[in-house]
Fold this protein.
Amino acid sequence: MTTSKNYFPKDFLWGGATAANQVEGGSNEGGKGLSLSDVYIFDSSMPKERWTDQWHMMTHKQVEEAQDPNSPHYYPKRKGTGFYYHYKEDIKLFAEMGFKTYRMSIAWTRIFPKGDEAEPNEAGLAFYEAVIDELLKYDIEPIISLSHYEMPLHLATEYGGWVNRKVIDFYLNFVTAMFERLQGKVKYWITFNEINAVKHHPYTSLGIIEEGHPHIEQAKYQGAHHQFVASALATKKAHELMPDCKVGCMISYQLLVPYSAHPDDIQKTVEAQRESLFFTDVQARGYYPAYTERMFENKNVKIKVERGDIEILRQYPVDFVSFSYYMSSAISAHPETLESAVGNLITGGIVNPHLESSDWGWQIDPQGLRTALNQLYDRYQKPILVAENGLGAVDVVEADGSIHDPYRIDYLKRHLQQVNEALHDGVDVFGYTAWGCIDIVSASTSQMSKRYGFIYVDQDDEGNGTQKRSKKDSFDWYKEVIATNGDTLLD
């Protein structure tokens, strides 16, 4: 059943989202250090499957080469799309669209270039304060992701990443510096971007190099435990310094559905969903759920929990839940007999014959967003932010400079209609930030040609171009959606 009434609240936070490592550039500016994301290369001569493979499997050789100032490789995330230089122009365009909010991340290495310094880098703090002030000038509410695949590379190479408990203190030094500098200016904070992604790319999420690791599952979940503790302590610190602020968690959420009605597929789906929601269960509920014991047993994992950790988790759960949503995934207990959905980066899964796919093989399921919102709200009863949603596609610049992207408008419209349905269901959704609101370097493939934005950036996969900004058709479409508070979605 579909409603014809608009249920978006008047104070709904319409906006967009980016990550510092994909948009900023300026890697040699202001004392910034190397981050985990600065290691990813792009080489068009490399087999296309390798573009995504490196996202899942970082090698020791690649990390070593990235630290060589004479490396011949192109590192796209060091260039980004120039937000570091163009942020005033970009924010003005966001304001023209009518953004009520902008979700952005902090490059940890702008604040602590190596991660283990005693004092923060003033140039980095000043940059982010200037960005926040620019947003506030246009009454755009900032939502800050504190860690979005921006961990200092030094903490991975010298400390082994988040598996080392010392990183908790380094993280707390970082977030405290941000809280103290931006208190009174930022209300919404997210401690870790897509924290459940540690299951699939431990290097990017945890700073752990999987290649040759003796017990990667143990390292993943020990690192995750340290992030849980760090998140709880960050929430505690935020509330001490900013009593009115809200701190949230975030996961990558692919709605999981059984491929068939066979009991084995249903059970497999339950188990896969628990593995994903385990991360929000701990952060939002404040404790390890009962199913954890068997899950760890199956993975041969036994995490080390220090005295006081369990109490910290219970005392300082997050205030809201946020998630990225791009696709759903069909789960089978016997996937070897079926066609694999190779584009589904987080859970894999089986091709769902009832769904269409993007150019990158991501299965498009707008109704799944409504189901996901209901599932998360039923489970946690906390306000929810749709922190990422969007369509990666190839955009063509016409001879007159126009960029027609009806496929993106269709994708976003259908998903936002389902957000409206979820609001009608009673879900407390307080905001929606479209992913890659300005073109950025792809997280998974390091391409530029996989574009998400309402704003086009003149730059190709090899980093060539002027970085000139121009509006796509979707720019005016989203502007109208925001101006009518969603009324145009019901047309």
